[in-house]
Amino acid sequence: MNELTLTAIRIGLLALLWFFVFAVVGVLRGDLYGAKTGGGRASRASSRERGTKTPRAVKKGPTHVAVIEGAMRGTTLPLTESGVLLGRNPECSLVLSDDFASGRHARIYPEADGWYLDDLGSTNGTYIGAERIGEHVHVDAGTRIRIGRTVLELRK
Fold first, then answer.
1. Is the pTM of this model over 0.85?
2. Cα separations in angstroms, 44 against 41, 79, 125
3. Average pLDDT over residues 96-125
């Protein structure tokens, strides 16, 4: 091989290495600070933002979320009108000590006809039973939500 070919291979490998480094930093940044999401949820204002009272359907539904499996077993948190943010980030309502949870992993929030769950673009997903969920999934009392090794249950 001549000198030009070796130099081209070295520059190519160096560029590939830098691409990998930037990709890893991007994934870590998204995991630590939460992914920016567009559209969907912004148009659905909560009842608190609209200035109306919480509907009766929400009041009859679950009142708190309990950790039933995982490192934080026994922890409970009341469901509020502003919703509950789940994840490892200290800004979350329920801070999970689970290596498989993202910084801002999921959100439980009220709407007129009950409580809903959104996965916030987490890396490992949010599951109800064996099904991986996305946005705007209706949840009732008794629903079990799995985030990594942590299992949560909505209770009255």
1. no
2. 5, 18, 22
3. 90
Spatial distance between the Cα atoms of 147 and 133, rounded to a whole number of angstroms: 11
Q: Do the Cβ atoms of 47 and 53 come closer than 8 Å?
A: yes
The helix/strand count (H/E) of the chain reads as: 4, 11
Quickly list DSSP for 32-49.
Answer: HH-----SHHHHS--HHH
Task: Tell me the three-class secondary structure of 135-152, residue by residue.
Answer: CCEEECCCCEEEECCEEE
**Are the C-beta atoms of residues 93 and 85 closer than 8 Å to each other?**
yes
DSSP string, 61-73: S--EEEEEESTTT
Sole residue written with tokens 């939500």:
145
Mean pLDDT of 3-21: 95
Q: What is the pLDDT of residue 43?
A: 40
